[in-house]
Design brief:
This is ATP dependent DNA ligase. It holds the Pfam family Lig_C. It is a single chain. The protein is about 35% helix and about 25% strand. It has 12 helices and 16 strands. The protein has 3 domains: about 1-65 and about 95-190, D-amino Acid Aminotransferase, Chain A, domain 1, CATH 3.30.470.30; about 70-95 and about 200-245, Dna Ligase, domain 1, CATH 3.30.1490.70; about 245-310, Up-down Bundle (Methane Monooxygenase Hydroxylase, Chain G, domain 1). With about 375 residues, the chain is of the alpha+beta class.
């Protein structure tokens, strides 16, 4: 198997990989992916190989793009920063989008989502927006980006003022080893090749960093932004993330809108974050009440909206707007969505100049059925 050979696995490890049925198809063969002959992704972690890692047989040989490591979360600032980092901590904005890795295979750029799929929509956008000269000069590096904007198939957001979709680099890593470049080197390369990158909000002394980070978190929260990622400037240590209260509430609002389609762990963890943040920020009674109201509204308001929609004969759906240059790529993306198990309907398609704009309604079948079941009188 070319995967075992590419990763240098022993015969025993190769058999284990097959027995555990970890490998999955990573793309739909199509001329749009002309440089890729075959590609498999890791559906789960295997030894040191991260979930979402991709092994692709390309026109230029076998390529390995490691999955993006999961970033652990800090629930407290002061003790965690002091315990985890050494002298300094760099604080970057954690942008609210979906995780993408961009690499070059053969003549073209390819964009992989966190789970290791080569996504047609994201790949088309990468080829439009990302300077390919970066990969001519650095063929063994991967751009780790947050894809953000209103025309996102996964996390549509308007808060950045991006009507379509754009990429912001947060890491540059070596393809096979997953070793990250330092923050200084990442920024230098991004500026050299005209790549946008997640804002660096400051580099602070570990002894007092919690005070600066708290001020940043409160400001980002007022602006409706997601939070921060705290990093060792040399990227020798694992980064940590920390989110704003407003983002926790926003996540809960989304989850309770589609409450039966999202796991209880998703909801519970965000409520726990709120408890630790409220404690550490030593809130006044008024601030605490505001947090409680924000949290309660985030839980009940979207759920009641979903119940009302089903009671009126409708379905609970998530509506997204996407834009394509070619009908062929649009149809390939719709096939990709179906192959990954997404239940959706195309609500509308229009021409906008030389582009195709499509509205997709993702049907939250489980939540819709659950609500209907209870409205008909069936017990929990």
């Amino acid at each position: 198997m070319f995967v075992s050979e590419a990763l240098g696995l022993s015969r025993h490890a190769g058999r284990k990989l097959e027995e555990k049925n970890i490998l999955r198809r990573a793309f739909i063969p199509h001329p749009f992916f002309s440089d890729v002959i075959e590609a498999l992704r890791f559906d789960r972690k295997f030894g040191e190989i991260e979930e979402g890692s991709l092994v692709a047989k390309t026109v230029n040989g076998v390529r390995v793009v490691r999955g993006f490591p999961k970033i652990r979360r800090a629930l407290t600032l002061k003790p965690t920063i002091r315990k985890h980092f050494e002298k300094e901590v760099a604080v970057e904005e954690k942008m609210n989008g979906y995780n993408v890795r961009i690499a070059r295979f053969g003549k073209n750029l390819y964009a992989m989502t966190r789970r290791g799929y080569i996504c047609p929509y994201t790949t088309e956008k990468a080829r439009e927006l990302v300077n390919p000269d970066f990969f001519k000069d650095h063929p063994n590096l991967v751009l780790c980006c947050e894809a953000v904007g209103e025309e996102s198939p996964f996390v549509p957001k308007s808060l950045y003022g991006i009507e379509r979709l754009d990429f912001f680099v947060f890491d540059i890593r070596e393809e096979r080893t997953n070793t990250p470049l330092s923050i200084e080197e990442k920024i230098r390369l991004c500026e050299e090749y005209g790549l946008k990158y997640a804002p660096l909000l400051g580099v602070f002394d570990v002894r007092t960093a919690h005070e600066e980070v708290r001020e940043i978190i409160e400001r980002l929260g007022r602006e409706g932004r997601e939070g921060v990622v705290m990093k060792d400037p040399e990227m020798r240590l694992e980064p940590l993330k920390y989110t704003t209260s407003e983002t926790n509430a926003g996540d809960l609002r989304y989850a309770f809108r589609y409450f039966n389609d999202y796991g209880k762990d998703f909801m519970f963890s965000r409520i726990v974050r709120e408890g630790f943040q409220s404690f550490e920020f030593n809130e006044s009674e008024e601030e605490f009440r505001e947090r409680c109201l924000r949290l309660g509204m985030a839980i009940l308001e979207p759920m009641v909206r979903s119940i009302r929609e089903v009671a009126e004969g409708g379905k609970v759906v998530e509506r997204v707007r996407l834009r394509f240059r070619e009908f062929e790529v649009m149809n390939l993306f719709l096939e990709h969505m179906r192959s990954t198990g997404v239940d959706f309907e195309v609500a509308d398609i229009r021409k906008d100049g030389g582009e195709i704009v499509i509205w997709i309604e993702r049907i939250m079948r489980s939540t819709t059925d659950k609500i209907r079941n209870h409205l008909e009188g069936n017990p929990w």
